[in-house]
Specification:
The complex is a heterodimer of chains A (about 325) and B (about 350). With about 325 residues, chain A is mainly alpha-helical. Chain A is built from 14 helices and no strands. Chain A folds into two domains: about 70 residues, no CATH class; about 230 residues, MetI-like (MetI-like fold, Orthogonal Bundle). Chain A is globular and about 85 Å long. Chain B contains 13 helices and twelve strands. In chain B, the strands form two sheets. In chain B, strands 6-7-8-3-9-10-12-11 form an eight-stranded mixed sheet, sandwiched between helices. In chain B, strands 2-1-4-5 form a four-stranded antiparallel sheet. The chains are: A mainly alpha (about 325), B alpha/beta (about 350). At the A-B interface, helix 9 and helix 10 of A face helix 2, helix 3 and helix 6 of B.
Chain lengths: ~325, ~350
């Protein structure tokens, strides 16, 4: 077990170095620098003169070739320093700390909702496979699954923020809170919850559709197996066959799915956070790329990569729990 | 009064290509404590017959006609074809146990051996978990698994094929059923393990008095274990008789062909010198017809060495009793049963 974890750790380190090296290379070689993007494009009058530009480049370390920059970034990371954001003049860790809460609020709620609804729905669909009600549900879920999030987000905004404006059903168009910071704790919580409804809905419906279809597909695979016939021949009723014998076997692929959803939990959705102007990680990532804010891009990349690797490791360890055939040795 | 009586069973599959009658009017009966061998080539409908008994035929298969009567000790019968689902579940694993062909896949990989045997007990007996576990241990001892205490907590993947089949047998016997349906129980196993499993089944039958319906394509297995034999061809029984009779005096051309197609141990009196040199096995020419294109009349006639046209392509011959307890579906069975006449046509079959 210990050697296995050690091996996974070393392999993970190598993977992280490879990922960050490639991403840093890509980011640095994108057209534009933090200086040109920030100051030059939006307002030509604020364009820096060449001497100042050179001075700024030296300060940010942009005068060195990108692979040198990467090594310096890597050295700082090893010492626990993710650097400071170019555009926001704050340490990257502070930025991440501010954004992680709002993202977790939306994606955590969405994940819990999607599983709470998706698992029973998938089981229901597999139990009633082929019946009219199951076909209708499955068709609806399929449509939901293929429906792009940004279309759904805009549609929800029109319905709840425009058409229903002034009614009890009205929901905020964007943002996380309209109340001043000195409002009472309860009032702020309620306000944030109201703002979160639409983003959560958007993020839930896709995972919900995916999860339930995934469970149904795996259940249908499981009920075709010989051991299901054995269970029926033993005298087990349909409920026991489905929920005890078949579902226990679908837990195995389900664990992988859960492991893979871990990075999304903290990473958030770029599209949804952008549309709803939700101050989360996804939006920070998008903005940092647009501003060529290399330290922030790299800090987020590192975090997403670490989470992905942890998710995979967690899934592999959970595997041993749900599948007796798998052992870490 | 037979323990199990199947009358005119018809099980068909409704596929997009049309109705496929895999079992087409099968009648069988099994006496208490006896072993009946159901023999035939792949695709003749023997497994579907077995699955029909416990109504385990998978969709799109449907039992369309017939009755399957199961009698208790007093002689009172229930018809399994029409029995309500909850009552049928009492029969499954309770009064009839089932053993499947694939020991590698017929156990659930995520539950321990002990749990899976105990489940069979808990489903049918009003006992505590501990008692069911005790029964599971007893059953593992009964099927002669070494170190049963340890095996109880092991998972199927930790056991060999032969051991898994013993576990499946233990599971099927856990509630002391009157009948065991064994669907090719040894086909997937090594030859040496096959013999052990067959010995075990024979021994258990003797000790527990359980009747066995043994489905197989292996006539050697039948010879060793069965009291009676029913030979199936293209969805129908073509011959049924005590095992000794079938081997000594087969009457149906198909049975004759099957017996001739067995690999011989040692020499064969009727064999010519040339045959011995090549050592080729005899075969029945042609293939089992698929149910959607069963030939008219006797379904075996296109492959039959004795077929007389047009008579054999006319009406389906009836199953009739040619000697006491010996039933044959061939109008020329009496002539075919003469040992003197057998030698010549058998060479033609080869």
């Amino acid at each position: 077990m210990a050697t296995y974890l050690l091996r996974r750790l070393l392999l993970g380190m190598l993977t992280l170095v490879a990922i960050t090296f490639i991403v840093y290379g890509l980011a640095r070689n994108m057209p534009g620098t933090p200086l040109t993007v920030q100051m030059g494009e939006s307002d030509p009058s604020r364009k820096l003169n060449p001497e100042d530009q050179e001075r700024m480049k030296r300060i940010y370390g942009l005068d060195r070739p990108w692979h040198e920059g990467y090594l310096r970034w890597l050295g700082n990371v090893v010492r626990g320093d993710l650097g400071r954001s170019f555009s926001r003049k704050q340490p990257v860790t502070t930025l991440i700390g501010e954004r992680i809460g709002p993202t977790f609020l939306v994606s955590g709620t969405a994940l819990v909702l999607a599983w709470l609804l998706g698992v029973p729905l998938g089981l229901y669909a597999s139990a009633r496979s082929g019946m009219a009600d199951e076909r209708a549900t499955s068709l609806l879920l399929y449509i939901l699954y293929s429906f792009p999030t940004f279309v759904a987000a805009l549609f929800l905004q029109i319905v709840f923020s425009v058409w229903l404006r002034g009614t009890a059903w009205e929901l905020p168009l964007f943002g996380m809170s309209d109340l001043p910071a000195d409002a009472s704790w309860a009032a702020r919580a309620a306000d944030i919850a109201r703002h979160a409804i639409l983003p959560v809905t958007c993020q839930t419906y896709v995972s919900l559709a995916y999860d339930s279809r995934f469970i149904k597909a795996n259940m249908e695979e499981a009920v075709r197996q010989d051991y299901i016939r054995t269970a029926r021949a033993k005298g087990a009723g349909p409920g026991r066959v489905l929920f005890h014998h078949a579902f226990r076997n679908t837990l195995i692929p389900l664990v992988t799915l859960l492991g893979l959803s871990l990075p999304g939990l903290i990473g958030g959705s770029v599209i949804i956070e952008q549309i709803f102007t939700w101050p989360g990680m996804g939006r920070l990532f998008f903005e940092s790329i647009r501003e060529r804010d290399y330290p922030t891009i790299m800090g987020l990349t590192l975090m997403f990569s670490v989470l992905t690797l942890i998710g995979q490791l967690l899934a592999d360890l959970l595997y041993c729990l749900v599948d007796p055939r798998v052992s870490v040795e | 009064m037979p323990l199990l009586e199947i009358n005119n069973l018809v099980t068909a599959f409704h596929t997009p290509a049309g109705r496929v009658p895999a079992v087409d009017g099968v009648s069988l009966s099994i006496e208490r404590g006896k072993t009946l061998g159901l023999v035939g080539e792949s695709g003749c409908g023997k497994s579907v017959t077995a699955m029909s008994i416990l109504r385990l035929v998978a969709a799109p298969g449907v039992i369309e006609a017939g009755e399957i009567l199961l009698r208790d000790a007093t002689g009172a019968a229930v018809n399994l074809v029409t029995l309500a689902e909850p009552r049928l579940r009492e029969v499954r694993g309770g009064r009839i146990g089932m053993i499947f062909q694939e020991p590698m896949t017929s156990l659930n990989p995520v539950f321990t051996i002990g749990d899976q045997i105990a489940e069979a007990v808990l489903l049918h007996r009003d006992v505590s978990r501990a008692e069911a576990r005790g029964r599971a241990l007893e059953m593992l001892e009964l099927v002669r698994i070494a170190d049963p205490k340890r095996r109880l907590d092991e998972y199927p993947h930790q056991l060999s094929g032969g051991m898994r089949q013993r576990v499946v047998i233990a599971m099927a016997l856990a509630c002391e059923p009157d009948l065991i349906i064994a669907d090719e129980p040894t086909t997937a196993l090594d030859v040496t393990i096959q013999a052990q499993i067959l010995d075990l089944l024979a021994d258990l039958r003797q000790r527990l008095g359980t009747a066995i319906l043994l489905i197989t394509h292996d006539l050697g297995v039948v010879a060793e274990t069965c009291d009676d034999v029913a030979v199936m061809y293209a969805g129908r029984i073509v011959e049924q008789a005590p095992a000794a009779t079938i081997f000594a005096r087969p009457r149906h051309p198909y049975t004759i062909g099957l017996l001739a197609a067995r690999p011989e141990r040692g020499g064969h009196a009727g064999r010519k010198a040339g045959e011995r040199a090549t050592g080729r096995l005899r075969t029945i020419p042609g293939m089992v017809p698929a149910p959607q294109n069963f030939p008219a009349g006797c379904r075996f006639h296109p492959r039959c060495a004795f077929a007389r046209l047009p008579e054999c392509a006319g009406a389906m011959p009836e199953l009739r009793e040619v000697a006491t307890g010996h039933f044959v579906r061939c109008p020329y069975a009496d002539a075919l049963g003469e040992p003197r006449r057998l030698d010549e046509p058998r060479e033609q079959i080869a």
